Description:
two-stranded antiparallel ribbon; globular
Amino acid sequence: MSVNPMKIFQLKGLWDRFISNHPKLPRFAQAVAQNAVREGTVIEISVATSDGQDYVSNFRITQEDMELLREAMEIMREMQ
Length: 80
């Protein structure tokens, strides 16, 4: 599978705009990554829609997940 460099550049612009609109998210993610993300940690995600519906899910981090998260964090650092 090849990656189109222009798509990556476009994604970078969209990500920068997203972070600009939600400036607390990077600090939160950094604090969690530094202090809480380790094997056995449970991550819970909650979404409340504008029409009042709630969606909640969670998962426990495995060693395999840690490898993926390390790679994803490295990619995110390179995008900054």
